[in-house]
Amino acid sequence: YHAFTGQNRQEIEARFAGKGYGDLKKALAEVIIEALRPLQERYQALTKDAGYIDGVLKEGADRARPLAERMLAEVKQKVGLG
């Protein structure tokens, strides 16, 4: 609850004083749902366009490939395979 609200322990204890554990769990679920809402909305927007995700993956692979090839060549040379 603290991680999602920023309230300190004393504030949280005061808020739930005299209440049961179920009240805390319900409030925590509500706080987490609200905190994750922007992420869920962004995820839904991104997954609507499969081409976007494919493009991001291709771009990442294109950037990583030259570095990986250089590293592999260096390793092969050092272990006597190149």
Task: Write the topology of this structure.
Layout: H1 2-5, H2 9-15, H3 21-47, H4 50-79
List its traits:
single chain; 82 residues; mainly alpha; 4 helices; 83% helix
Task: Describe the protein's architecture and organization.
This protein has 82 residues and is mostly helical. The protein has helices at residues 2-5, 9-15, 21-47, 50-79.
Give a short summary of the structure:
This protein has 82 residues and is mostly helical. Helices cover 83% and strands 0% of the residues.
Radius of gyration, in Å, reads 24 Å
Task: Using the alpha-carbon principal axes, give the shape.
Answer: elongated
The span between the termini is 56 Å
Tell me the series of helices and strands, N- to C-terminal.
HHHH
The profile of the biggest β sheet is: none
- Which regions are unreliable across 5 or more consecutive residues at pLDDT < 50? none
Q: What is the helical fraction, as a range of percent? A: over 70%
Beta-strand fraction estimate: under 5%
* Number of DSSP-assigned strands: 0
Structural class: mainly alpha
- What is the average per-residue confidence, as pLDDT, rounded to a whole number? 94
Count of helical stretches: 4
